[in-house]
Specification:
The chain is α/β, with parallel strands linked by helices. It folds into 3 domains: 86 residues, Rossmann fold, CATH 3.40.50; 227 residues, pyruvate-formate lyase- activating enzyme, CATH 3.80.30.20; 64 residues, no CATH class. Helix content is 36%, strand content 23%. The chain has 12 helices and 19 strands. A 5-stranded mixed β-barrel has the order 15-16-17-19-18. Strands 2-1-3-4 form a 4-stranded parallel beta sheet, sandwiched between helices. Strands 5-8-11 form a 3-stranded parallel beta sheet. A hairpin with a 4-residue loop joins strand 16 and strand 17.
């Protein structure tokens, strides 16, 4: 029996798909990338934006039309609850085919953000048991992984056995028994636990120097309308502390443009905040009305052309910030987990793609054939020689 997976959206969806795939393999199934060859097709959908949902639904419609007799399961953040019953007999397992491990520690969200439909699919926040998380991490390390990506729907809401996200990160980081590995935090919502989380990251050298913060807007008026549980003051304080504790860290953000009643002044406030705080990796989305959300019913809608124009402006601002950040790596030594053996390429701790290049990688491997050969998943150091756009290029140390 063969199963095919199509996965949309975030790291959490990816983590769940990989674990489910491993569960099928444990039951004797094989995986395939071909819909035609599959006995079962599993689509892990995403509904965060109208475009994401449209792409998912377009694929689902295509599959149902082309393969009407095949079993098709839709799950993730775009569920067909009847078909999900078919997955109950398959227990998720430790995935082993990726270069980096994806560790799901939390699901759902207690937030009531006006624009978000995700809690309707994933429900209230629920944490994976603290000891179970550590056990999963140990299995990943035993399988040879050297980077574990901690994922969840809203990681700031993690709570198990009285322990929160900072406690979990510290415990994961301290699993190192001399093997050399690192932890990457998926995303960090501005919240009461966020400052302590930043301090936990800074206190452990093997937690990646990258934070992704869903800011959404730099206007307190719009943040209030969005029902976001923080103000720009808290965002500023969080980022300033992170920068002080970890100079040179990678700093990503989510930005939503054109929320109902967003004025030119509100938009300028967002641009100003992103500049002041030196974010260097932007995820930008124009607002889209999600049926079933509070925001879909709000008056004073911003015209779609303005939403998209503002998104393009923020994206261009992000490109400039990214280039400035990338250029600061020349001559430095960075650590990567190898994902592409041919090019000796992977992500740095700061979440910048870095590569040696195929020709230099081949020469290096040949020169060290009698010694250490670098393989996929290895954690290696690269001295940055130059930049190719937003890619670092260097040589193994």
């Amino acid at each position: 029996m063969k199963v095919c997976f199509d996965t949309f959206g975030c790291r959490l969806n990816r983590a769940e798909a990989l674990a489910l795939e491993a569960g099928f393999l444990a039951r004797g199934w094989t995986t395939t990338d071909s819909h035609a060859d599959a006995n079962l097709i599993v689509v892990r959908g995403c509904s965060v934006t109208a475009r994401a949902q449209h792409d998912c639904e377009k694929l689902i419609a295509h599959l149902r039309e082309k393969y009407p007799m095949k079993r098709l399961i839709v799950t993730g953040c775009l569920k067909d609850r009847h078909n999900e019953i078919l997955l109950r007999d398959v227990k998720p397992a430790t995935a082993t085919r990726t270069a980096r491990a994806y560790l799901k520690v939390q699901d759902g969200c207690n937030g009531t953000c006006a624009f978000c439909i995700v809690p309707q699919f994933r429900g209230k926040s629920a944490a994976v048991d603290f000891d179970e998380v550590l056990g999963s991490a140990r299995r990943f390390l035993d399988a040879g992984y050297r980077e574990i990506v901690v994922t969840g729907c809203n990681l700031s809401q993690y709570l198990s056995q009285g322990r929160r996200l900072p406690d979990l990160l510290a415990a994961l980081a301290e699993l190192d028994g001399g093997t050399g590995f690192r932890i990457r935090l998926g995303s960090l919502e501005p919240s009461p636990v966020a400052p302590e989380t930043v301090r936990a990251v800074a206190a452990h050298a093997n937690i990646c120097r990258y934070l992704h913060i869903p800011v959404q807007s730099g206007s307190n008026r719009i943040l209030g309308a969005m029902r976001r549980p923080y103000t720009t003051r808290e965002v500023t304080a969080l980022v300033r502390e992170a920068e002080n504790l970890m100079p040179g860290l990678g700093l990503g953000c989510d930005v939503l443009t054109g929320f109902p009643d967003e004025s030119d002044y509100d938009f300028l406030a967002t641009q100003s905040l992103l500049t002041r705080l030196k974010f260097n990796r932007f995820h930008v989305f124009p607002f889209s009305e999600r049926p079933g959300t509070v925001a879909a019913q709000l008056p004073s809608a911003v015209p779609r052309e303005i939403r998209h124009a503002r998104a393009r402006e923020i994206a261009a601002q992000g490109e400039t910030a990214r280039t400035r950040f990338i250029n600061g790596f020349k001559g430095k030594t960075v650590a990567i987990v190898v994902e592409d053996e041919k090019r000796l390429a992977g992500w740095t701790s700061e979440y910048v793609w870095c590569e040696v290049g195929e020709e230099r990688a081949r020469a290096y491997t040949h020169a060290h054939a009698r010694g250490r050969t670098i393989r996929r998943r290895d954690l290696v150091e690269i001295r940055v020689r130059e930049m190719n756009g937003h890619v670092l290029v260097g040589d193994p140390v």
